[in-house]
Amino acid sequence: MQPQVVQVPLPILLLPSLLLHIFIPLTHPKSTIEPCNSSDSCLSLLYYILPYDSKLSEIAYRFQANISDILGANSIAPTTLGDQIFETKSIFKVPVSCSCVDGIRRYMSTTYTVRPADTADSISEGFGGFVSAEQIKSSNGINATNPLMSGQSLVIQLPCTCFGNVNNGIPAVYMSYVVKIGESLDNIATEFGTTTMELEGINGLGQPVVNPGDILSIPISACSSANLKWYKESLIVANGSYALTASSCIKCVCGPNDFNLRCWPSGIAPLCYDQLRCKDSDLFIGDSLVHKTPFGCKVTSCIYRGHNGGKIYRR
Ligand SMILES: *[C@@H]1O[C@H](CO)[C@@H](O)[C@H](O)[C@H]1NC(C)=O
Ligand SMILES: *[C@@H]1O[C@H](CO)[C@@H](O)[C@H](O)[C@H]1NC(C)=O
Ligand SMILES: *[C@@H]1O[C@H](CO)[C@@H](O)[C@H](O)[C@H]1NC(C)=O
Ligand SMILES: *[C@@H]1O[C@H](CO)[C@@H](O)[C@H](O)[C@H]1NC(C)=O
């Protein structure tokens, strides 16, 4: 099914961060609405450019994301430690659980504890411009009589989209993206392997024009376990990333060329070793063996089939 998108007049919610409107006149930021049910949430990504040097664990804490999920989404070695520091301007695709807030709009919600030197602008910048200073103030009742207080806990909502994790009938994960100064819709489409028309459609743009600070939803092709007949498990993995599953025993990768989900032992979890070999076979999960027979070749494979209650299924 095609995602249903509607152009909405933009409330104060999506004003660009102050940092940006020092340089540019106020424009008409775009967003996407998506009819949704409060019970459903999905995997979504935030394209986050580090505003300052940060430990991996700080990024995870900020977005209430799981460190191993962040490593997977960015194809960084699963053994990387949380105290590893990444430099300003490093780019992370932060995996978030995107939930339905008011029936038509999706957000991931996190909280932020105000520090002594913080302003609404610095907090907005810390969240990569996914939430504006105005939004932070309005959703937390901050004004001249109720200023930000050090130690105060703020609710922060960052826009995300799901669209059923499909795009043109193909599995997809949607990524929120803050338009930077000097970027056009064409640039962005090219960078992420999509088209201007597609971005216009998904984001409900009336014309192929974007402005700095606008937040776009960008489809990233993905691999899904949907047609693999997994038992008690479903998984969606964006192009160019991996996911750990079955208590980190199994690593699944989305191949960039054929868009098949391929899974094999992760090698990082010792407790699953006796569950990684197929029955009556020398093959481990992910292995294939080609036998030459008088009638041609026969391939035997040992394939991951999902997991449940500590048991790994394979065949
Ligand atoms: C919400 O859930 C109900 C019941 O499960 C379903 O009929 C309806 O189509 C859902 N709406 C959306 C927008 O997904
Ligand atoms: C992160 O995710 C992995 C795999 O799903 C899980 O085993 C681990 O407990 C999670 N860690 C945290 C801190 O939630
Ligand atoms: C600030 O907000 C409070 C309620 O949150 C309201 O009572 C007060 O009048 C507001 N002050 C100003 C200056 O807008
Ligand atoms: C998948 O990602 C690779 C880089 O990891 C990129 O070269 C390729 O164009 C992407 N494919 C699609 C369909 O987005």
Describe the structure.
The protein is an alpha+beta fold and 315 residues long. It folds into two domains: 12-222, no CATH class; 242-314, no CATH class. The chain is 15% helix and 31% strand. The strands form five sheets. Strands 1, 4, 5, 6, 7, 8, 9 and 10 form an eight-stranded mixed beta sheet that branches. The protein has a three-stranded antiparallel beta sheet with strand order 11-12-13. A two-stranded antiparallel ribbon has the order 2-3. A hairpin with a 5-residue loop joins strand 4 (91-100) and strand 5 (106-113). The longest helix is centred in the middle third of the chain and has 8 residues, at 133-140. The chain is globular, with a radius of gyration of 22 Å. The two termini are 32 Å apart. Mean pLDDT is 88; it is low at 1-29. The structure holds 2-acetamido-2-deoxy-beta-D-glucopyranose (4 copies).
How large is the radius of gyration? Answer: 22 Å
**String of helices and strands:** HEEHHEEEHHEEEHHEEEEEEEEE
Strand fraction: 25-35%
* Overall morphology: globular
The number of domains? 2
Mean pLDDT: 88
Number of continuous helical runs: 7
Structural class: alpha+beta
Report the count of strand segments. Answer: 17
Distance between the termini: 32 Å
Hetero ligands: 2-acetamido-2-deoxy-beta-D-glucopyranose
Low-confidence stretches: 1-29
Q: Which range best describes the helical content: under 10%, 10-25%, 25-40%, 40-55%, 55-70% or over 70%? A: 10-25%
| Major β-sheet annotation | 8 strands, mixed
